[in-house]
Each structure stands twice: as structure tokens, then as C-alpha cells.
Amino acid sequence: MSGKTLIRGAYVLTGGPDGALRDAAVLVEGRVIAAVGPYAELKAAHPDSAELGGPHDLVLPGFVNTHGHFSEGLITGLAEGYTLWEWIHALIDPVVPHLDRASAHMGTMLSGIQMLRSGITTANDMFCSDPGAAEPLTPGVVAALDELNLRGVVSFGAGDTRVRSVTAQLEEHSALLEAAEASRLSTFRVGVGAVGGQSEELFAASVELAVGGGHGVHIHLQEVREEVTATFQRYGATPIAHCAQEGLFGAPTLAAHCVWVDRHDRRLLAEHNVGVAHNPVSNMILASGAAPVMEMRELGVNVGIGVDGAASNDGQDMLQAIKSAALLARVHAMQATAMTAREAFEMATIGGARALEMDDLIGSLEVGKAADVVVLDGSSPTLANIHDPYQAVVYVAGSREVKDVLVDGRPSVANGEVVTVDTVEIAERSRPMARDLVRKAGLAHLSELAR
Ligand SMILES: [Zn+2]
């Protein structure tokens, strides 16, 4: 979309200081937001602009998905009834050695299509695998994101418990960095699978690469109690305290989960400005617990929402994750006031952008920011009566209401369909790949597809 587009809604939920605007519109010019204001005024000033949305639609900033794993795109809906460490042992460890660049590309396509259809415009990903033996795998992720027109923050979740070469891990990081630098929409972070998954040598190299190289970090921290116990026994510190001591937080850090965090851990997160990705659906599926989201927010920690991987959620639907965040907070606190719809909405947009330190570019509909915009269909019976626009988004809307999605000013979804790739052809092509992967991993007994 090279010219001007006016995106109209009954409400524009800016996610910025302007809050919710009625009968308003967003003017997109090229890649950026050029104006936000009353529809009638913008229409009069820009009569020739193309139009999206309509008088009953909801216009929102694109959702910022703060945590996921494109490495799991082909093993979704497989193996249930496990807690995290059991699940890693039963499903992830057998699959990882058989991933390659083609499956990285396909997994990203499948997950990315679902993300776009649920209004995600930025995906913060950690590709968890062994480094590619024949060729680096993770450039496949970046290629797929560019094809989909989905903004990415990409990382390789390094860990040397299986492949013990630190050099091989660093080579995968640098191949991903190179791919991200050449891409239009992706930026690189240093991935650390978990403190417990790295040798001291690799962890020191990760700190050096991130802090010395000026890169952000994406890490799992304190998802389950076992992780806290094991790291405490090894280092005499919780994973969060260990990262603080070793200097990892000298780089902008996004920590996934932070479920098992005590007062001391929470204070360290706030002091070091560590952003947190809250993943309510996978935390419930794996029975990991309920993260103390509101306690962290009260300390000033920037908390965003993540869908997590396609094997632990197992869907990639942001609207489900946002609703789950609001509901889990209530069940956890046993209080109906624990988290409002507006708070959940803000975590999914500007909160996630702040957690990734990208709030100068994305997360709200403000002049000068990237044109990452979502339109929800107000002509759908589901959204026929909008009494409160935040509750309409968080509790009422489903991905079926996602009508248009723009990323960087370009349409990725139009009339509810991903328009950048042939989604039917991708689904078709993925089946033999998923079947082969599950067979090679020795998990065919769990899969009707691969049996
Ligand atoms: Zn994860």
C-alpha cells in the first residue's frame, strides 16, 4: 500500500495516551501512522485516500506476542498430560535433532498464519533446536516471516546439553543475526534457552555476545519450581539472581514466564528493567502455575502476553491468550477485580512493546509509529453491540472477527484471510513434513498422522 489509507472504526483503541476514540480513524501513509483522530475530519482532509474498516468496526494496534517457538509449528496437538520437564523429555528432546531449515520455514509459516489471523503483528520468537549440522536452521524463520509480512524479534534458544560445542551454538546465533539484518521486518536477540540448559562457558559467551554486541536477550526464567531448585543447587542463586550477578541483564532482556518468582526475584526484575512475557495458556496446559502478574506490574515491571509455542499452547491465537490472562488472574487471586479488560488489552499491545523495548515503534496507534493495525469486524453478530470496546476485544471477539491486519503499512490479512501466502497450499505441503518429523523422532505411536 503505497498511498494513503484511512482505517475507520466505531472505536479506535489507540493503546496510547488518547485511549479510546469514538467515530475515529487512523491515517496510514506508506509504512507509518500519519494521523489519528475523528473520522469526519480526516476524511475531509484526505478525501482521496483508500478506506479500510467501517462505522461499526474496532480498530486496534497490532498485538505484540511476547513469547513463542516457531520450532514447534509441526508438532502441535501432540503429547498431553505432562508437566514442563516431562514434556520436554517426552516431546521436545526427541524432535529437536531432526529439525532442519525447511521445517523451520514450514513451522514458522503454520504458526505465523495463525498469529496473523488472531491479530498478532509482532512475534517475539525463540527457535529451540540443536544448531544445524548441515546448514544453520534459523534463517528459515526469518525468510518465512518476511514472506508472511509478520514483524519478528528472532532468537535461537541456545543450550549445550545435547550438542556440547559452544562454537556451534555461536555459529547459529551469527547466521540468524545475519539473516535478521538482511530482512525487512526482523530484529535479532540472543536466545538463552534457560540458565540450566547452558554450560558456564556458553552462558558467559551469551552474556558477552548480548552485552558486548549491543543485542537484546530472550530467555526462559523461573517457569517451574524444578528449574528454580536445580539452579539454586548448582549456583546457590535463583536463575534470576544468577542472571543479575553474571551481568546478563546488562542487555535489554525479555524473560518468559516468571511464574515461580519470590519478592526478591520480582524486585530484581524491576531493578534491571527486565520485561516479562506472561503465557497463561501454556502455563495452564503444563500445570506450571499462575504468574504473579499484577504483583510484578505494581513494581513497574513491563509485562506482555505470549501465546508460547505451538506444542505447549497448542494454538497460536492471541485473543485466546488475552482472555486467558484476564481469567487466570481472577482465579489466581479469587477476585473478580484482579485484572480488567483494559489492563489485559494494554498488556497485549503497548505493554508487550515496552517489555521488548520497542514502544517507540509499535504497541500503540500514535503518529510516527509503524502502521501495524488490526480491524475487528463490527458487522459480525459477535460484535454487533459494543457496550464497552475493551470488553468487546478481550472477552467477546474471536479470531473470526479479525478482518484486516496491516504490518508495516502492508496488508497481511484482508477480509479475514492471510493474503501474503497460499495458506491451503502450505497446509497441504506441511503434512508429509510433520509425518516424517514425528516418525524420525520415534513418536509415531502418539500421532494418528504418523502411525
Ligand atoms: Zn517458551
Automatic annotation (TrEMBL):
Signal peptide (UniProt feature, chain positions): none
Domain annotation Aminodeoxyfutalosine deaminase/Imidazolonepropionase-like composite: ranges: 24-48
Pfam families xref list: Amidohydro_1 (PF01979), HUTI_composite_bact (PF22039)
CDD domains named among the record's database cross-references: ATZ_TRZ_like
Top-level division of the source organism's lineage: Bacteria
InterPro entries: Amidohydro-rel (IPR006680), Metal-dep_hydrolase_composite (IPR011059), Metal_Hydrolase (IPR032466), MQNX/HUTI_composite_N (IPR054418), MTA/SAH_deaminase (IPR050287)
Record's keyword annotation contains Nucleotide-binding: no
Keywords: Hydrolase, Metal-binding, Zinc
Residue span(s) of domain Amidohydrolase-related: 58-410
Protein name as catalogued: Amidohydrolase family protein
Species of origin: Actinocorallia aurantiaca
